[in-house]
Amino acid sequence: MSSIKSTEFCSCSSSSLTIIDRPNKHLQVEIHHGLFSGKRKSATDSKNWYDELLSNVKWHRVKYKSSRFQSDCETPCYTAFYGGRKEYKPYTPVPDWIKPLIKEVTAHLNCNSDVPIQFNAFLLRLYFDGNDEIAWHTDGRTFLGAEPTIASLSLGNKATFQLRRMHNVWPCVNGTASTEGSIDTTTPIESFVLQDGDLLVMKGKTQQYWHHRVPKEKGRGVRLNINFRYIMPGVDAERGQMTYYKYMVYGDVPIDQDPPSWTFDEIMKKKGGIMNFVKGGVKRKAAAAAAAAAANSVAVPLVGGQTSDEKPQDEAEPKIDPLPATSKASPIQGPTSNLIPDIQQYLSSQNDIDEAVFNSLPIEIQHELVTQRKLQNEPHTNEQTTKQCDMAEKKKSKLSGRRGTLNSFFAKK
Q1: Contact 13/186 with Cβ under 8 angstroms?
Q2: Which of 65, 144, 257, 345 lies 20 to 30 Å (CA to CA) from residue 186?
Q3: How confident is the model at residue 388 (pLDDT cuts 50, 70, 90)?
Q4: Is a pLDDT exceeding 60 seen at residue 224?
Q5: Where does the record place Polar residues bias (predicted)?
Q6: Rounded to whole angstroms, how far apart are CA atoms 87 and 232?
Q7: Could you tell me if 247 and 287 lie in one domain?
Q8: Whole-angstrom Cα distance, residue 129 to residue 60?
């Protein structure tokens, strides 16, 4: 039977629906486009769920000894896990702040479903940048049932999601992990670009015949993912729940101890903060700059005599997203205009900094970066250095509560 692929309007909410139904290949996938995008937020709640997750979740980078690979391993992205069955340990209750989102996703999927869909286990992943990934795997588990419905909600930056068909989804040769001979090379890989707010749903026998992954991607910004599952009651449920918490939360840390965890702000500092953002972690696309220019009409001067069609900013400073998805150039003007020579010198001396990225930063952050670099390069006596450090500390303390500084740029909003 040939592949059936269609895009239709989902009557339950304002999202379009792509359906891929290939019974002969045991592939059944739906993509509900833009269901919870940052612009649309939520149909029943005013929360922006991307910001909610960044503000509330404590993330784990789990380390464990792999019996399958006989080596020390670490999860290739940050994870968190809530729920499961209350009668088994470990168990972390689902936080109240995320329950409205779970309720709406469940209601949306049940709107046109003949079989009731429910979820009780929730895996969260943070792909900080394009180096984070999830390798080929299946979500098929005995404690999820023979044909589980797995829902996956994407928030933030777009990412590629791929599926490949397998002759054996659990390949094992002579006791070691191997995929040799297990991949169905006659069936092309299915590849999708998941955007902010897209809900991907895998149904039927998909987990029995298909692997999926999120590969590394150069230049990808922060992406959040929530994976919805249902752990069924039964003899294997306790073992299954323990497995989830081991590989998503505790690793080799005993379950009676607190595993290492970080907030998003702490991860930003750990990753190098603003310098990691400027230095090649995220590259601004020319299309984003062109779109910003097309949407505005007043030209303002930029670094190096360039101009932008961006309208002058309002006196009230806009809210700054922790990792903006698109760039809007910040004009050097007013009292900061005397920085232009220093900025030009700074950019010419930093080969690994994209000028478009630098221009997209708030003026105060540009000022701090240039000033820091200038202090590092200029020779000073010990007395001068001490005095400058004292002044810098006082300035840092004074600015700590203002938006636009290095620290507050990535702070919770």
Answers
A1: no
A2: 144
A3: low
A4: yes
A5: 327-336
A6: 12
A7: no
A8: 16
Phi and psi at residue 93, to the nearest 5°: -60, 150
Check residue 308 and give its pLDDT: 35
Q: State whether 175 and 307 are in the same domain.
A: no
Is the pLDDT at 304 greater than 70? The verdict is no
pLDDT band at 164 (very low <50, low <70, confident <90, very high): very high
Alpha-carbon span 385 to 208, nearest angstrom = 65
Of 267, 301, 336, the last residue of a domain is 267
Q: Which helix (H) or strand (E) holds 264?
A: helix 264-271
CA–CA dist 160, 214 (Å, integer): 6
What is the total count of domains within the chain? 2
Task: Give the separation between CA 6 and CA 212, rounded to whole angstroms.
Answer: 21
* pLDDT averaged over every residue in the chain: 76
Which whole number is the average pLDDT over 242-254? 96
pLDDT in tens, 93-143: 999 999 999 999 999 999 878 889 999 999 999 999 999 999 999 999 999
User: Following DSSP, what letter does each residue of 340-408 receive, concatenated?
Assistant: HHHHHHHHHH-TTS-HHHHHHS-HHHHHHHHHHHHHHHS---HHHHHHHHHHHHHHHHHHTTSTTSHHH
pTM score, two decimals? 0.65
Kindly report, residue by residue over 13-25, the tens digit of the pLDDT. 656 999 999 999 9
What is the SS3 assignment for 289?
A: helix
Tokens of 122: 């929730």
Residue partners of 187: CB distance under 8 A and separation at least 6: 25, 164, 165
Q: In terms of domains, do 152 and 179 share one?
A: yes
Question: Which pLDDT value is given to residue 235?
Answer: 87
164 closest CA partner among 179, 147, 183:
183
- Domain hosting residue 281, numbered range: 273-409
CB atoms < 10 A from the CB of 198, how many?
A: 24
Is residue 177's pLDDT more than 60?
yes
Q: Is the dihedral of CA 68, 72, 77, 82 positive or negative?
A: positive
d(CA 308, CA 14): 35
Q: What is the C-alpha to C-alpha distance for residues 148 and 146, in angstroms, rounded to an integer?
A: 6
Q: Which residue has the tokens 């820091």?
A: 372
Q: Of 227, 251, 267, which marks where a domain is finished? A: 267
Where do the DSSP E strands lie in 159-272? 159-165, 172-173, 176-177, 190-194, 199-202, 210-214, 223-229
